[in-house]
Amino acid sequence: MKRFPKIVATAAAVALAGAALTACGSSDAQSGGNDAKGPSRVVLTSHAAADTLNELDLEDRVVGLVKSGVFPAALDDYSGGEFTDIGSLKEPKMDVIAELGPDLILFGNRTREMEPEFAKISDRVIAGDPDTSETIASNRAKVEEVAALFGAQDKASAELDKIDEKVAETRAKAEGAGTALVLMTSGGKVTGYGQGSRFDLIFNELGMAPAGELEAEGSHGAPLSWEQIAELNPDHVFVIDRDAAIGSEGEAASSLLDNPVFSRTAAATNGKVHFLNGQNWYLVGGGLGVLEAMIDEIDSAVS
Amino acid sequence: MTTTVERRPQRGSLWPVLGVVALALSLVASVFVGAADITVWEALTGGLTEAHRVYLVEARLPRTAAAALAGASLAIAGLLMQLLTRNRFVEPSTAGTVESAGLGLVMVAIIAPGAPIVLKMLVALVFALAGTALFLACIRRVPVSDSFVVPLVGIMLGSVIGAVAAFVALSRDLLQMLNSWMLADFSAVLAGRYELLWLVAVLGGLAYIAADRFTVAGLGEDVSTGLGLDHRTVVAAGMSIAAAVAAVVVVTVGALPLLGLVVPNVVSRLVGDDARRGLPFVALLGAVTVLISDMVGRALPGFFAGGAPGAGEVPVGTIVGILGGAVFLVMMLRGVRNA
Predict the structure, then answer these.
(1) How many C-beta neighbours within 10 Å does residue A18 have?
(2) How far away is chain B from the Cα of A180, in angstroms, using its nearest Cα?
(3) pLDDT value of position B327
């Protein structure tokens, strides 16, 4: 099924490479105003990078991004038709991307394996999502890398410093806030995330103490029984409703958690069950604006 | 079920006693295996803490009941399908039944995502029945000279239906949900959230009442018609019971692959092929197998993690699948007697 688009993509890439050679022979020495600097036809399969470009007021450089399925509300500025829908986070349409003739592709973690194919379409292919094992630091590196391409370092570093300040503030509050557990609900089932998981931001960088050691591997977490959750007895529970994040109305997380076993946890007794913005945490996971919003959520939970 | 003890099968009269004892032991063990240390002594002397009482009543007893019901009923479903297709390899996951139920669930999740679970179950049931009927139609058209051909046809049919379900699920981001239906996991079972499963006990009872007819139908169309049986109706009824069991189990806890294949074959080696005599044993052994598999799934990660409650669980479907796959393979390699 993918064979045909691949041929198209390759053909387009060859054509583009030729065009690039003639047109941008001296792109490094490109002069002129700041406005014209950097790539002008950006394609994204990374929501985090899309958010960063939006925050840097560079969304007019974007020609296409993954909008099929649930498109996070945080990226609303891209809802217009001038931003071509290139498919879904996991399955971008290579032929559509090739047609757009991008001079920069920022790919997300869910399309990491497609990097070689992206490289056939565009000369410049960069990973756009932060690494979940050190979200803050790698988000900074990603943002700086992207900003540098457009000469927008000054604006980016101001925003990044603001994020670092917030991290320090939240860390200070998290220190005495007790233990935490992240739960993702989907289709009536619950999985847990602790230190070392994709939501390590909460533990590793925002400084919440994990409620027991959870199996870190697997992007969908450790399957926990209600009794195990009650025995872990976290002081704070952060809930990500995956079904809401992906737009299907599953059993709502709140009704799933409303049971006598979960009610025994310290978090439930003290009203410390926090429902996080599933789209931001599950689908975006970083970026200049969204990361700040994510930190704010944890901050207000421990305030 | 105790009636079988009085019936005294000709050989191996120890089996009923053994079966009942094994079931009783695994039921008790299942109630007392878990993240928290609850001892039988505490439960008997009323020395339970409030937390432990909640765990027992709200989580462990329902979970134990769910495992026993799903195991017993799926094993019966396998027995019925094997009798009626006259093939030892046929069971809900080798006849397209489970995959069809999954497809039905995906469809209802797309068309009416907020539908009550009873409606979801009915849709899964209709799809399971249709898929099983398609399987029967297929094997009627295939020259069955080799007993392996029948399950192969069923597995292929199931793969095609499963692929359609996966394709639809993928396009709507429901793949994770589909996977959770295709692999049983009792970790989310709580009082108030599994009770539909008691329906399969009713279906199992129906199968027992009609067991003699199924045995006769299993002799083949000519013989059973000669004996005055409406062969087609009996086959349709039996396959419907099996499909309904599979649908209910898939909706409530997820599929237990190959359980219905392993258990009836083991039982037939032990007590023979008579459905009325075999059925209670099949139910017992099915329940015991799933109870033990679920306990292993619960205890295994904690065992490696030194008893930490955050170790998670291995889904019971995985363990049953591995077990079933191994037995299936051995049966294939040995070549089955009178298959």
Answers:
(1) 10
(2) 12
(3) 85
Burial of A85 (0-12, 13-18, 19+ CB in 10 A): middle
Average pLDDT (B303-318) is: 76
**B54 — contact with chain A (CB < 8 Å)?**
yes
In Å, what is the CA distance from A240 to each residue of B51, B83, B246? Answer: 26, 47, 31
Q: What is the DSSP letter of B96?
A: T
Report the C-alpha gap between B284 and A248 in whole angstroms.
Answer: 39
Phi/psi of residue A272, nearest 5 degrees? -110, 35
Per the CB < 8 A criterion, the answer to whether B9 and B15 are in contact is yes
B187–A224 CB contact, under 8 Å: yes
The pair of three-digit structure tokens given for residue A174, joined into one six-digit string: 């998290």
Tell me the one-letter amino acid at B35.
A
Average pLDDT, chain B: 87
| More confident: A101 or B38 | A101
Residue B1 has pLDDT above 60, yes or no: no
Q: What's the confidence (pLDDT) of residue A257?
A: 93
Among A2, A68, A190, A228, the strongest candidate for a mutation testing the B interface, having the largest count of B CBs within 10 A, is A228
Name the band, by pLDDT with cuts 50, 70 and 90, for residue B142: confident
- Cβ contact (<8 Å) for B188 and A226? yes
Within 8 A of B35 by CB-CB distance, chain A residues are 225, 227-228, 230-231
- Helices B149-171 and B97-111, interaxial angle, to 10°? 20
Determine the pLDDT at residue B12.
54
| pLDDT of B3 strictly over 70 | no
Contacts of B313 in chain A (CB under 8 A): 223-225, 228
Taking the CA of residue B182 and the nearest CA in chain A, the distance in Å comes to 13
| Amino acid code (one letter) for B299 | A
Which residues lie closer than 8 Å to A8 by C-beta, 6 or more apart?
A94, A95, A98
The chain B residue lying nearest A245, using CA atoms, is B173
Q: Between A138 and A218, where is the model more confident? A: A138
Distance (Å, whole) CA B241 – CA B255: 16
Tokens 């050190």, located at residue: A134
3-state helix, strand, coil in chain B (%, to 5): 75, 0, 25
> Residue A6: pLDDT band by 50, 70, 90 thresholds?
low
SS3 at position B1: coil
For chain B, give the percent of residues with pLDDT over 90.
52
| A133: nearest Cα among A125, A123, A141 | A141
* Closest by Cα among A208, A220, A199, A178 to A294: A199
Per-residue pLDDT of B95-116, as tens digits, reads 999 999 999 999 998 898 778 8
Residue B5 has pLDDT above 70, yes or no: no
Backbone angles phi, psi at A248, to 5 degrees: -100, 140
Q: Is B117 on the interface with A (CB under 8 A)?
A: no
C-alpha to C-alpha distance for A299 and B130, rounded to whole angstroms: 53
Mutate to test the interface with B, among A67, A203, A225 (most CBs of B within 10 A): A225
Query: Which tokens go with B145?
Result: 């000279």
Taking CA A130 as the corner, what is the angle to CA A124 and CA A131, rounded to the nearest 5 degrees?
115
- Cβ contacts of B174 on chain A, cutoff 8 Å: 248
For B273, the 3-state DSSP assignment is coil
Answer yes or no: are the C-beta atoms of B254 and B181 closer than 8 Å.
yes
DSSP type of residue A109: G
Across the interface, whether the CB atoms of A192 and B193 are under 8 A apart is answered no
